[in-house]
């Protein structure tokens, strides 16, 4: 863990947006679009999708994003795709339920 702390110390928080698909009614997917200018390949990306958290690090020390969101997502069936020409990472996460709903 010490190495990870050093590697993210100088990293910037990238621009990102979160949106739901479909935009109305019960959401099926939570989609994150993360702008990563200067990242030439997905090989330098470390992505961790938690049930209500998204953590991304672009090595070496370029970007670091750690966000909590209001939905529980299916981590196992989440997918990510990096577009080299637009330098945008798209993460699509199936929504299980709202994190604010009680069981």
From TrEMBL:
TM stretches of this protein: none
Pfam families for the chain: PIH1_CS
InterPro entries in the cross-refs: PIH1/Kintoun_subfamily, PIH1D1/2/3_CS-like
Top-level taxonomy: Eukaryota, Metazoa, Chordata, Craniata, Vertebrata
The organism of origin for this protein: Ilyodon furcidens (goldbreast splitfin)
Name assigned to this protein: PIH1 domain-containing protein 1
Recorded coiled-coil stretches: none
Annotated PIH1D1/2/3 CS-like domain residues: 25-96
Record family assignment: Belongs to the PIH1 family.
């Amino acid at each position: 863990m010490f190495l990870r702390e050093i590697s993210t110390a100088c990293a910037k928080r990238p621009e990102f947006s979160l949106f739901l698909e479909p935009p109305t009614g019960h959401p099926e997917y939570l989609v994150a679009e993360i702008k990563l200018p200067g990242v030439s390949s997905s090989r330098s990306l470390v992505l961790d999708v938690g049930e209500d958290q998204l953590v991304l690090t672009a090595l070496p020390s370029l970007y670091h994003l750690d966000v909590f969101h209001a939905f529980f997502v299916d981590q196992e069936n989440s997918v990510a795709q990096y577009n080299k020409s637009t330098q945008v990472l798209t993460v699509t996460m199936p929504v299980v339920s709202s994190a604010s709903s009680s069981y």
